[in-house]
Amino acid sequence: xxxxxxxxxxxxxxxxxxxxxxxxxxxxxxxxxxxxxxxxxxxxxxxxxxxxxxxxxxxxxxxxxxxxxxxxxxxxxxxxxxxxxxxxxxxxxxxxxxxxxxxxxxxxxxxxxxxxxxxxxxxxxxxxxxxxxxxxxxxxxxxxxxxxxxx
Length: 151
Hints:
The protein is an alpha+beta fold. It has a single domain (2-150), classed as Aminopeptidase, CATH 3.40.630. It contains 4 helices and 7 strands. It has helices at 11-21, 30-37, 87-101, 116-124, and strands at 2-5, 42-48, 54-65, 68-78, 106-112, 128-137, 142-150. A 7-stranded mixed sheet has the order 1-2-3-4-5-7-6. Helix 1 packs across helix 2. The mean pLDDT is 95.
């Protein structure tokens, strides 16, 4: 396994991995995937196998609200065939290191209230539920839990 940053040619592999990981309407389209991955405020961490096949990735944006800056996880995807090997945890850990190195002290995310496996994963990684946002996933008519982890 190799941990690396984003490369411009990664968009198609990221898009295909997202399709494998999520059902509509939770999937990104190619254009949105490229937009969030190549945003100037993006941190992208990729884990690939020795042949450079993508096993997983995480996209984090550094956002600003007034004077406050915060890190927000846009998406984390791990290939179904590579799950339960610690890849998701490694992706989060590397993203958290980069966020912390940028001077930020917390990282947050939204997760669908019915995504029990993701909720359990985030809790194991030290994320704490702080709120519920109604109808966050509008197209799915699904609420989301808001999770935050201090760094």
